[in-house]
Amino acid sequence: MTVSLYTDCGHNTAALDMTVIRIDQLRALAGLLSLKDVAEEFAGLPLQGQASIFDLFEDGLGGVRAVLARDR
């Protein structure tokens, strides 16, 4: 059973729930990249691989921004 985090605020609850999940995913990715071993591996990736990881952040944050802008 799915429980919404925003049942009483009158917003699009599914969009807000997905936004919270996306933020949690980005936070987890940032946490991994902050570990020394992971950072060293990241530095050893080809530029295309590094750019792909940054694209994940850009895409995720763009989605979060869209939901927040829509629910103002």
List keywords for this structure.
72 residues
Description:
The protein is mainly alpha-helical and about 70 residues long. Helix content is about 75%, strand content about 0%. Helix 1 packs antiparallel against helix 3. The chain starts with 12 loop residues before the first helix and ends with a helix. It has a domain at about 35-70.
Give a short summary of the structure.
With 72 residues, the chain is mostly helical. The chain has helices at 13-33, 36-44, 47-70.
What value does the Rg take, in angstroms?
16 Å
Q: Which secondary-structure class do the elements indicate?
A: mainly alpha
The dominant shape is: elongated
Q: Give the number of helices.
A: 3
- The poorly predicted ranges are none
Output the helix-strand order: HHH
How many β-strand stretches? 0
Strand content: under 5%
Query: Main beta sheet: strand number and arrangement?
Result: none
What is the residue-averaged pLDDT? 85
Strand-helix topology:
Elements: H1 13-33, H2 36-44, H3 47-70
Helix pairs in contact: 1-3
